[in-house]
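Schema walk-through. Below, the input block comes first and the output block second. Nothing else is stored per chain. Lengths vary across the set, and this one has 69 residues.
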Amino acid sequence: MNLDVNQENLYLFLPSKISWMARMLAKDKGVSLSEAIKTIYTSDTYRRLETENTKLWHLGPVALYEDMG
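--- output ---
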């Protein structure tokens, strides 16, 4: 069984991190969840997160949210 994270399977890690981040952003900024998700998906943090070699996927949702700061 291959347990290596690579660019082809990285997408499996992202939904739960984005979900947590979106809830934090919606609460902190007083925006809807859909607006929070749009903000995350257009952020520099997400562009780096979706690239395996940055290793940002190692970070938890709180650290990623703070990175968006």
